[in-house]
Structure formats: C-alpha cells, structure tokens
Sequence to fold (120 residues):
Amino acid sequence: MAARAAPARAPEAHETTNEVRLLGRLSVDPVERVLPSGDRVVTLRVVVPRPAPRRSPQAPTVDVVDVGCWSAATRRSALRLRAGDEVEVSGSLRRRFFRTGAGVQSRYEVEAGVVRKRAP
Fold:
C-alpha cells in the first residue's frame, strides 16, 4: 500500500496593497490626449512639497508626480481643474511601457481612482 501524500498547504496569505494618496497643487493645466489605440487619457502633474531637510532648511524641495486619468469619471473631474489648484488624488502606482525611436521605455505614474479639488 502506497503512502498517502500530505495535502499541499496553501501559501500564507500576506496582505498587499498598492494605494497612493497625493495632496498637492497642479503645476500645469490638465492635458487630454487620444492614444493610437483610440483610448483617451488626461494627464496631471501634481507638486507635493517635501519637508525641509535638517541640514539645509533654506532649500525646500518638492516631488513632481505624473497622474493618469483613464476612466471617464476621473477624466471629467481632471478637466475641471486648472494650474495652481490644490488637489487630492488617490489611486495606484503603475509602471507604463511604451515604444520610442530609442526602443522600449518605461515610467511610473499614479493611475487616478479619484481626483478632486481641495477646498481653500
């Protein structure tokens, strides 16, 4: 009689997440583009100040984050915004691949799930 194999154990479940929340201001007006595939995307550039480094408090720095609005709802919300508006964006970090004359390249952007203007 052959020995019975122990049932395979499922790997332990670890919680994972890809959530981004930005609170900042738009550096330029939103831009809508139609891609060769026919898809539409509205892109935003959100500027988020960093805390001043302790060693050089007079040199404030910022992060400039590209945001892609792919759904109809986020595109509509984004197109109501203007440069200088304070905004809140939540979504997920995505790595996009695309072809150029130099070959395949990639960049990171936040894919917006929610875009809203922040109250003054």
Summary: The beta strands are 20-26, 31-34, 40-49, 62-69, 86-100, 103-117. The helical segments are 72-79.
